[in-house]
Amino acid sequence: MIKIDFESLRVIGLTPYIAQQLLVLESNVAATFPARIVEIHREWMQFHNSEGEYRARALPALGVGLAVGDWVIVESRPNNEYWITQRMESVTQISRRTHEGNRQILVTNVDTALLVMGLDNDFNLRRMERYLAIVQAAQVMPVIVLTKQDIADNIAEKLEKIKQRLPTHIPIIAVNGLHESTVMALAPWLRPGQTLVLLGSSGAGKSTLTNTLTSSAQPTGDVRKDDSKGRHTTTSRSLHQCTNGACIIDTPGLRSWSPDADEESLGLAFDDITTLAMSCRFRDCEHQDEPGCAVRNVVDADRLHNYQKLLREVRRSQQTALERIDERTKWKVMHKAAAARTREKRGDY
Fold first, then answer.
1. Are strands 71-77 and 93-97 parallel, antiparallel or unpaired?
2. pLDDT tens sequence for the chain (349 residues)
3. pTM of the prediction?
4. Cβ(276)–Cβ(304) under 8 Å?
5. In terms of Cα–Cα distance, which of 98, 5, 114, 19 is closest to 51?
């Protein structure tokens, strides 16, 4: 049976439930122990077993599907060689969809997602709604962290905009990521055994937050003055220990985020729209120009447009390859027909 030292592993996110799941895994090899993946590279992985970080390789059957945050069983072999032999099924996983519709797992076994957005030119409500859709589809608690409170302009106006547009039950915290008061502001989500993940664009201040919460010194980069976008100072996902017992996963800024969600889970992030839609005259109302729409004149027009865009992405991600081909063919036929009508009106033959 695998032995688990709960108190020592708690510093890297072990909870009673995860401990029970690890005990279900069986190993006939004496030199095995539980650990957590903290970083992944092409040919090897970094794991933490509460005593320190070590490199390991994964058995071929496991290597493709592993992600930062995974709890695994590691086998110790001669010559200080370590092999990952088993993976615990993740409690939560945040993932996105590629352009081909394939799922890409980003991180696993997280309790809270800190959705980081700068109060400078990084401020983008559509992007924040996209983050919320992805996180809530994974059943992970979102907390919005607005950074650069010390240098941004029109802070009160931006705070009012985000509070008016997003659901009221989502915590919104404005911070100066360099100041120690940030730790106190985020203390409710930094309890021992908790795992958080930072999600946001490049230059939003994720690495600065990580440094403040862990009292470490990860590299941070400058941002462009015109759009407040930064260089990728964080190039891979990595797990770090916070000073108060929680652990946090820093991630690179992602340029494209297609939700790994279905229509029902997307509705959780836009519950104001889905609730109002129940009062529409038509059950299949698209909230565009249909009579009797209960949504169109109540919800912010830009928020509704963003919901409709994300809904199209979700529906496309659930299509098979043949269905996507058929859809492209249909649009090509419609485009050619429209072009032909235009030429006919102009008298071009």
1. unpaired
2. 678 889 999 999 999 999 999 988 877 777 899 999 999 988 889 999 988 999 999 988 886 789 999 999 999 999 889 999 999 999 999 988 776 667 888 999 999 999 999 999 889 999 999 899 889 889 999 999 999 988 888 999 999 999 999 988 899 999 998 998 999 999 999 999 999 999 998 888 898 999 999 987 554 544 444 444 444 444 578 899 998 889 999 988 765 667 777 888 888 889 899 999 999 999 889 998 899 999 999 999 999 999 999 988 888 877 666 766 777 788 788 888 888 888 777 776 5
3. 0.82
4. no
5. 5
Which amino acid type is present at position 188? P
Going along the chain from its start, the domains and CATH numbers come out as 6-87 (2.40.50.140), 93-250 (3.40.50.300), 266-318 (1.10.40.50)
